[in-house]
## 1
Amino acid sequence: MYENLINALPAVLSLGNLLAVVIGVIAGICVGALPGLSATMAISVLIPFTFGMDPLVALGMMAGIYNGAMYGGSIPAVLLRIPGTPAAVATSFDGYPMAQQGRGGYALQVAVVSSSLGGIASALVLMLLAPPLAKVTLLFGPSEIFWVAVFGMSAIVFLLGGDVIKGLISAAFGVFISLIGIDTITGYDRYTFGHLELLDGINIVVLLVGLYALPPAVALLEEVRDLDTANTGRLNTTSIWQAIPGMLKYWKTWIRSSVIGVFVGILPGAGGSMAAFLSYNEARRASKNPQDWGKGEPEGVAASETSNNADTAAALIPALTLGIPGTAVAAVMLGGLLIHGLQPGPMLFRDNPDIVFGFMWQFLFAAILLIALGGALATNSFAQVLRLPRPLLGAIILALIFIGVYSINGRMFDVYLMMGFGLIGYFMDKLKFPLPPVVLGLILGGFAEQNLRLALRIGGGDWSILASSVASKIIIAMILIVVFMPLISRGIRRLKARPDAG
Amino acid sequence: MSFKSIAVSAALIVTCATTGSAMADYPEKKVDMIVGFAAGGGTDVMARTISPYLEKYLGNGTSIVVKNMPGASGQIGVTAVADADPDGYTIGTYNLPGTMARTLDRNADYSTESFTYLANVVNDPNVIVTPKSSDIATMDQLVEAAQDQPGGVTVAMSSLGGDDHFFLQKLSEVTGADYTPVPFSGSAPARSALMGGHVTMGIINVSEVVNFRDELNVLGIASQERSDMADDIPTFKEQGYDLVNGALRGFVAPADLPEDVKSKLLSAFQKTYEDPDFQAAMRKSGNPTELTLGDDFQALNDEQLVLAKKIWETTPWK
């Protein structure tokens, strides 16, 4: 197997194939950075063109786009608090406060270095451990996946923000959105009001753009005053190579978030946003100064960005070996493979080693290239966007999000839906309802519900099936630890404090 | 009426007349092919694989433009085909039994009358699979297990009201036993749950099992004759169970297509099917081909609807 890896390398290093990765990374960063456009969309658009391409050129571009977009999404998240992709929501928690404090350039540098490291870790795992990890994926049936979703929901505790009641209402709203569409277990439509467009549920991008991007884009239109453009165009950055030594102190977060990202990647159906939320939460829990999180802690940006890139190549493990895509992007990529007659499964590795292992190398190169291309693009080019007059910037973003949302399924229905969510987002913002629980509720609510019901169907309605396997028991134990740890540690602290007081 | 307007109407009439006669030269512009699924899905790959061959055999240097209109498991796309002008410049993909089943379990804006049936190209028979670790490796063992504990056998499948679900109903009837359907979202998750041993058996299609033969027991295939994709899998008929079922994928146009346009399209499909390059391309993308043309396709569609109705009336899936 490792012999195959080496044999695949020369083809990847040919000029055309390498160039494809470079173009892919640049395109990915741009697509990720533009609100409303996502990696899923970019790759779907690319797929029809790949018919006539050499497989490695096509796959190299896809690998580049995927890695680039996962970082690109952090650029508007940091600069404007508009996540460019769903996975960048957690990046905005600390990235945007940093930008407000004039440290936006550093936030982007942390983001690009972390993204790149997460991507490298993920690509290495894909290259070296794909077959054993595919066996781990198989251990996760519906009941185990249900518990993982519950574990993810424990992250809501932090996302609730100051007002717990408002946070819970937001989360419940997200879960409600996840109910819309056809109920896959019984076949009944829920809250579709006869609209075929709602049968498949509401696309996360439609919700995200509506809640997060539309209200601030409109607000930009209102800011007619001239800004001091000479200063805003610079992000107060040093060269990225000088900044890296200062980031080495995040090594623990990088490792932890890579592991979380890879783990979420090999689970079918979870995706980069869940990886980012989970690893942000874990990093905060492990931090010595959790009270500073959400106010501009660079480590928060590192946690979120490492894991949403660590999710990328890992999501291809179940996709290539079992045909189950870990994320929406991996699903589209499977289509790209299918077009070239590459069908997922154990045979794929045997019959087309040059292409499969070449594809893995391309993921690695894309992740490495990210530091050079992302660092240069982010600090030098995208920051210039901030020098644009605000109404012009707002108008450009509005145009982009309309085009992006329309092109998901090629219909106006989604655009109207997005505008409806924009209205909701506006009022939620004014009434101080937190937005992240909505996103998490939509992602995890449906995920938890479907798997719970599949598990109960398999168990014949017997709830004990949920705790029947070893894997389930381990995850349940982890949930209990996470939920009760704060209470226990508070109790211990109180016990310790008592002798001093008394 | 002024002289000018008379001249204009005359000109219009002449133009109409020329377009009318030009019908014989179909196609004289691009042909839209509507795919009811997203780019990169199985149906989309079939559409994109066939397009260059259809272009070649339709002639006149025409081009076929694939348009993805995903949503509602293909219903949005197929409705758009039904509503399009019957001029031969809009055709679309068509999935059975799904498209007909939707006329029963949902409000559909189309019926069997809404289409001109061109060609069914893919026939992907169902197979029954069990995990390698399972002690059920033959049909007789499966039937015994299912009759022993009614509802105790859990069946992974891709969705409700699809070909795999219909096959399960037939199986239930033929074996006189009850099974518990577990609808995953898609065949790949169903297959993985099976490989992990989370369910007793699964119903998928032969194209989805050929790359996983080492990981799964295949109990039989629901076709009349053995499949050339895996000719070691015995048919259910050989084993004494009258079970024939599968997923069908083909192409339709709106109803009332002009006869000359229809015959051009049918002959293009026929020639495409006979092209060895096309067969090789379909094989590479894992599509088992079987051509059913024109009226035969319409008859096949009616047959599928009758079957779906029968199942819907006795054991509705929702």
## 2
Amino acid sequence: MLKKLLVLLLVGMLCTSGFAAEKIKVVTTLSDFKNFAEIIGGDKVTVTSFLKGYQDAHHFEIKPSDIMRLSGADMLIINGADLDYWISPLIEKSRNPNIRKGTSGCIDASQGIPLLEVPATKVDRSMGDVHPYGNPHYNLSPAAMRIAFRHIADAMSARYPDYADYFQQNALAYEKKLDAKISEWKGLLKNSQETGIVVYHNSWSYFFNEFHLTAAGYIEPKPGLSPSPTYLNELIQKVNAQKKSGVILKETYENSDIAKYVASKVGYSVEEVPTYVGGTKEASDYISMVDTIVKTIARK
Amino acid sequence: MIRIIALLVFINMVVAFAEQQSVFNPDIGVVGELNVLKNENTGAYVPAIGEVEMNFSAPVDPLGSAVFTIAVAQEGTEIEEAYLKLPEMPNGLIGRFGRVKVNFNHLNMLHAHEFPFLGQAKYLEDFFGEAGVIKDGFEFGSILPTFLSYSDLTLGYFGGNSDNTFSGDYPLASVKWNNFLEIGDNSGVELGASLLDGTSSQNAHVTVKGINFRVKQQIGIHDSLIWDNELLYSNSDQDSSTKIGAFHYLGYNMNKQIQFGIGMNRSDQPDGSTYKDLFVAVQYKVTEFQMYKLQYTQEDNGNNSIGLNLTYFIGPHPVHEF
């Protein structure tokens, strides 16, 4: 009896480890792409993301354990456009040829997305934290992320042709859902053009562009630069001159004291919004993240 | 007409040259410093620029990349690093060939401008010189199977560059075993053991063992706590005495912009005395590329001082890991 039990246990363990080993290990830099890879890959993949949704993608602190995570990966999905620049030394240290840039195992999700604010002149740091290939924060545009989603689905299908039909089926179902939500979001925001919206960083360009909104002001005088008291006074004057009611959208990793100070001077409210999946409790996936942002603005 | 064609050909050549330059030029970074430190002779506080560090890096070919770091100071020019890195060698090995910062403890692998305090860790400076353990040779590193979050082993064979402990005329062997344990999403413990085995300029066999222990705890989204400890034991068969060097630092990083820290150094001197100090340092990063450090240091011999440092960067620079 004991022998049978042991054999059963062993067979069970072997089967379990066999199934676990069959799963494709996908690593992503941003949590948004983790969500996408899980939707496309379903039960064929295990996905981990380096960044949690509440962290700033510009400043990721590499830990040695991140090297291990990448060394065992079958695929890597990056934002590209210089946002997750810190991935390059990690790829090198991982000694994993499967996910080297330029191979089919490394998907740059920005490919095919028309980037905004591509510098037309020489870029230098007097402009602040300007990215040389254009604004990399396309993840706040559902339309741009639909392109990224399709690119990821096709790249995963091409790399794993045995699962291609399954991946494409999952992708098509999600695209349908996303298209319906994009129409809904456009409807919700159609009357928000007059809402004053103050944001921290120029990570909102794609969102504003897609929904025909404009920023009443930026808390950062230049990308990545903390505001001086003089600049904040100028910002307060500028926002007050627009004579709008509105909201300050605070990203989860930004300083709330400055937002509260500006809000108290311009009569706006401060709302913490997710800018990546998992940024707040409500933003458990990409659609709920955009839902949260859209509804926050539409309420004003 | 001929002039126009010649002009078009010239413009075409210039554009082609510029495009070629952007493809093949290495990344160039320069670090500048201004210090206001107590002059050792007069006791007066005198501003002076520190060394200018120039860093060049680029892929050599699809298999490897090269790094050159040149330090230019009032005293002269020094090649701090010049190596070829091969990240994808057989059996998962990573190799460095040339002049490198030897994989010994943790701080030795970093440049002093990356520290949230002034200058080099005193124990490294006393045992190996201002830039730490820098040698010519080669090393191979490999990730080890482990129950921890990460473990690696690096072996090196060096020579070529003498310091306060080792003669460059004899070979130097190095071993570094580095381990990391991730505790949840927000904290990690790093523990390393290092060994350097070589010969001193007095022809004595010298063994230096090092231990580094570091804890980093993220507090909320913006803040973090760092506790860093490094120890060194040096044995020479000439006098069979053990010399000890130690560094301890506890720092609190607020909003990734301001870091307060308290630290201490201890190092046995060649004359048998022991140097000890205690310091309090504040670092303020205006941006990633402009930072200020202010430090008060109280030495055991009663020599107390205040120091101020401005560090600024142009061009790209490697991701900081302190």
